[in-house]
Amino acid sequence: MTLTKAALTEIISEKNNLSPPEARETIEALLEIIKSTLVSGESIMVSGLGRFQVNEKKKRKGRNPATGKEMMLDGRRVVTFSCSGDLRKS
Asked: Quick one: angle between helices 20-39 and 5-15, nearest 10?
């Protein structure tokens, strides 16, 4: 099951006695903080959940699967997630 923003809004609204617009605003603010932090290249550690980290991938050789032709793939930034030990245990 995928947890959508709408479902998350409903859950937070119910658990914290917030109106749906207040819950939506809170979620949007949290996601915006996470996105802007990752865009700046910093990591985010959420206790009990895990760490989101930006990694730089180097330029590398690749292959077009349709034609088999070799090509160079540009370097890029990727976000990885490592779950906390507590989450892993549960």
From this structure: 120
Q: Which of 23, 18, 25 minimizes the C-alpha distance to 8?
A: 23
pTM of the model: 0.76
Q: How high is the pLDDT of residue 66? A: 93
Within 10 Å of residue 66's Cβ, how many Cβ atoms?
6
Residues in the chain with pLDDT < 50?
A: none
All domains of the chain in start order, with CATH: 1-40 (no CATH), 41-90 (4.10.520.10)
Tokens of 14: 């119910």
